[in-house]
Amino acid sequence: MTDRRSFLKRTGLLALSIPLLKNELFAAPFARKLPAKGIQLYMVKEDMEKDPAGTLKQLGKMGYTQIESYDGNKGVFWGMGNKTFSKLTNDNGLTLISTHYAGNSGGFEKLAAEAAEIGMKYLIYPWKGPQKGIDDFKRIADEFNGYGAICKKNGLRFAYHPHDYPYKPVDGQLPIDVLLAGTDKDLVDFQMDFYYTVTEGQDPEAYIRKHKPRFRLCHMRDVLKVRLPKGSEDESACDLGTGIIDYNHLLSTALDNGMEYFFVEQSRFFRETPLQSAAVNAAYLNTMKLA
Predict the structure, then answer these.
(1) Out of 34, 97, 208, 236, which could bridge 224 as a Cys pair, Cβ 3.0 to 4.6 Å?
(2) pLDDT digits (tens, 9 = 90+) for 85-111
(3) Which residues form the Xylose isomerase-like TIM barrel domain (predicted)?
């Protein structure tokens, strides 16, 4: 009797587990996550200036694993030197992937060597500003090729981060198209800021597909469902998942077309502090269901 009961118990449990196992087997190939969750430190710049160690510790606890720096008052390594800052990030479960930097060529070459020394992947040029004519953007493309060559010589990559102005027509052309065409794909990648692409009326997925795999990095923030009056370039930015951008679909497309690094970045907040928004955004990324 005992053997019979044990057999029925085992077969009953097996029968119950088959549907669950079947669901897991069929769901697994379609359930994807981002390779890592990143954040651009400019989002929490006031906290970083006051307490870099404490701020990095909080970001690590939120679940971020990658960071991108920028050239602020204390430099991209926050006044610590490249190795010391890299150790601090690593101690908090974070990897310094990239930094924004718009210095001169001499400073750029020095930074490229320091970045390569600690295993960084990218130096990113964040801002050139609107130009008078489209020929100016052609000149900038040549300049970016030069920066790309410097990075390649040092064993890392160069990228450009377009804001809103490259999506505004100049002399009948979009500067972003001129920059993509005029830069060497072996030397220059791009970091898409989804907010600017969408608010300027362009289709981010179309650009990502057409120019695969040149958009290797991104900045993520959402766009309010009801746009606010013009007041600043970021007047309608909001936390991820609270706006109009379908990030589940968008990031699935990005992953399929060569994008590797994903950074939360926001400069307008509905929370009391930027760190609270950082936590909300990190939690949202955990809920995503990428095809």
Answers:
(1) 236
(2) 999 999 999 999 999 999 876 799 999
(3) 61-265
pLDDT tens-digit readout, 186-237 = 999 999 999 999 999 999 999 999 999 999 999 999 999 877 666 555 678 8
Q: Are 70 and 122 in contact (CB under 8 A)?
A: no
- Residue 11 confidence (pLDDT) above 60: no
Q: Is residue 22 part of a domain?
A: no
In DSSP terms, 218 is beta-bridged to 192, 262
Q: How far is CA 63 from CA 39, 128, 197, 280, in A?
A: 10, 33, 27, 11
Q: Which two tokens stand for residue 230?
A: 């013009």
Question: What's the CATH number where 103 sits?
Answer: 3.20.20.150
Q: What is the identity of the amino acid at 288?
A: M
pLDDT of residue 2: 47
What average pLDDT does range 233-245 have in this prediction? 85
* Domain count within the chain: 1
161, 196 Cβ separation under 8 angstroms: no
Tell me the C-alpha distance between 214 and 198, whole Å: 18
